[in-house]
Amino acid sequence: MGALKKESLERERIWTKDFVLICLANFFVFLGFQMTLPTLPLYVEHLGGNDQLIGLVVGIFTLSALAVRPYAGHALESRGRGMVYLTGLAIFVISVGSYSLITSLILLFAMRIVQGAGWGLSTTAAGTIATDLIPASRRGEGLGYYGLSGNLALAFGPSLGLVLTEHISFPLLFSICAALGLTAFLLSSLIRYKKVERQPGKAAAVKWDFYEKNALKPSLLIFFITVTFGGIATFLPLYTHEKGVAGIQWYFIIYAAALMLSRIFSGKIYDRRGHIAVFLPGTALICAAMLLLSWLPNSLALFTAAFLYGMGFGAVQPALQAWAVGSSPKNRRGMANATFFSFFDLGIGIGAMTFGQIGHWLGYRDIYLIAAFSVLVSMGMYLWILRNEKPSRAA
């Protein structure tokens, strides 16, 4: 009995060596990525681009990641987790490192497509690897902890990138970001990856598809939410500068701190009560943040919006991801994650490109009003899903 109890406890552990490694690798690659997020629009401006070009440069990255995710989902099940993850990280390192040599908007646009492919491979694989390592009974909690690694990077990355641009050149900044990606690659090479399980006689029956149908509902909901992220990450530094509101560096720190705080308890709430307990409160906070940003009278409003958005997004994102993975067959977890992050990326990409046009023609304020409406659409769709879904599945 003692041996069985010990084995059961071992299976329920979250913080294993491999889980720590995937969290550390995720932290470093996200740190390199987040440092480029607010600085690339500045670099596009430095190269002579306008708001429309900024939106295109940001948007093409996410659309590139979107295009590669279906392949990533199938490759995770057929070629193995490690191959997909390491390949994606290698592409990320090479593409970001190349920014230090680029002085043309056309070349930057092309390398953003390459970086998006690497990002699509690596993030789809990392989410699936984390899911493999987390006990099913603690999936919401575990994905919340895993998400914290990216949130820590978010706490420091954007602010660090903005501060460094005041003291070093853009080429040196991008070289540092590539070095952080290389650190993630080295750490991830130490992980013991789950072996691909092939069932004899079944390989020929597998059809190539582009999504996991059981993950579509939460994926569609995250799409309308991440549209807001495209407006924040791409245009908020320019918006605050236009309005003369100081503290954009603190916005990202406060947002990330709230995100971490939210994920500490929201994952446990999801495991106990389901997505019905976290989705509507979380999206209400996100909507309030968007309305506050559209007003933005001073730094206090900026910081309050950061806190509200972090608390809301920190509750909603891991809950929807756990819903997408948990409702899909075990042998489709890779494709479930690919489906979820495809819609995640699509929201950011469409948001960045659409809001680039809106910012150019109407001004930055209207970006956040329209983003608030997008969140309301997600809330309405969720209520429709609940109405047509059995109560036992929602909880």
Short note summarizing the structure:
The protein has 395 residues and is mainly α.
Helix content: over 70%
Give the CATH superfamily. MFS general substrate transporter like domains
Please tally the helical runs, counting DSSP H or I stretches of 4 or more residues. 15
CATH topology descriptor: Growth Hormone, Chain: A
According to CATH, what is the class?
Mainly Alpha
CATH architecture: Up-down Bundle
> Terminal Cα separation, in Å?
33 Å
Ranges where pLDDT stays below 50 over 5 or more residues in a row are: 4-10, 199-206, 391-395
Helix/sheet category: mainly alpha
Taken from the alpha-carbon principal axes, the silhouette is globular
> Could you give the count of β-strands?
0
- Strand-residue fraction? under 5%
**Overall mean pLDDT score?**
86
- Domains (count): 1
Structural notes for this entry:
This protein has 395 residues and is an all-alpha fold. It has a single domain (14-193, 211-389), classed as Growth Hormone, Chain: A, CATH 1.20.1250.20. 80% of the residues lie in helices and 0% in strands. It has 15 helices and no strands. The protein has helices at residues 2-12, 17-36, 39-46, 51-78, 81-98, 105-133, 139-165, 170-188, 216-243, 248-273, 279-295, 299-326, 333-361, 364-387, 391-394. Helix 4 runs antiparallel to helix 5 (81-98). The longest helix is centred in the N-terminal third of the chain and has 29 residues, at 105-133. It is globular and about 50 Å long. The two termini are 33 Å apart. Mean pLDDT is 86; it is low at 4-10, 199-206 and 391-395.
